[in-house]
């Protein structure tokens, strides 16, 4: 099912018994976060807080907080089918038959034809506030006791490249400083920060629009690590099977989702920065306070009866984990296109997506694992991966117990570990310096004589098929059910 906006998704989840309405009064300062954290850790439902202290606007949260809800959000019934949403774009195998090549070309055409559809009237502009407004009219959350304030946690931040004119949409937390300004937590590696630096170089302030809400695919697309040249709103249109409706913002030269709940319009001034953070982040630790650009809100547009979308992050598992796993599944074909020997990839929840990658490969030559380790560090945001483990193709990297057993038994630390220095995620607190530090590659594959292993590699223990079948046949006879 293709959802047109956030409310359609909420109604769908409620019909599926996957959403609970909470009518008791709740405080957006810490209370909502504590409730949501408990529900999230239990794999519980999406939540709609209808009676929020200090605001008449309800909060929708944990909408994507399960594999099933994440699947529905991306218009598939089974989480394991998510990779099919992107794989056809990346068919580059010369052995494809004519029909498969035509299908791939058609999917590329669909991506090019998924240009957002501009409309004149939009639900997100039913009410326009250019003077008399306050960000504190909205139920912005304070999530953790050590947070430096209240944060907008699920924003779709829209900017334009000052040189190319292409729009970018990313998701960056925003600390609300006062009634009309927020922080803009642009990590130095992200496209929003690139656009800002270009604007600074040109001596122009950067116009910004922030959409809160929208259809679930568009929300997800703001988090996707897309290949260069693919705009997020185009990508969302491709995944949805029809273009995203957009409308020209009222006070800035940007196109914004027409069916969002709330739109913040404004600008980031050149050179102006303010201390932002600490913030309880998805690593499970507080990210350290630092200076970031300031977003000045000059206009707010919204629906007459908006829902405020939010999320909280912290110690995994939480809602963002399922969004990250969807990204893992969807972009596996992109990784395979460049490294076809890769069988599967698992970015475990505990690794918070940039700390650990478990990878199985079809090993074909000596030191093949080393090649993959180095190649992974050269793939877009995979460059942040602090630990890369490589296993043989028969290892199920989704089974962390099997992975641990293989690694602990197969690895000789002196022979199989490589340590290099390179970029790290901004949120990594372990390195002595911010943004870069040491990374480790671990070759947990079976070693070959050509790799200098001159002993006999022991065979794994397996029962004979004959005995297994015999025991299967006599299982009930033994008194087992």
Give a description of the structure.
27% of the residues lie in helices and 24% in strands. With 481 residues, it is of the alpha+beta class. It has two domains: 230 residues, Electron Transport, Fmn-binding Protein, Chain A (Pnp Oxidase, Chain A); 113 residues, UbiD C-terminal domain-like. The strands form six sheets. Strands 5, 7, 8, 10, 11, 14 and 17 form a seven-stranded antiparallel β-sheet that branches. A five-stranded mixed β-sheet has the order 19-20-21-23-22, sandwiched between helices. Strands 1-2-3-18 form a four-stranded mixed β-sheet, with helices on one face. Strand 12 and strand 13 form a beta hairpin. It is globular. The protein starts with 5 loop residues before the first helix and ends in a 7-residue tail after the last helix.
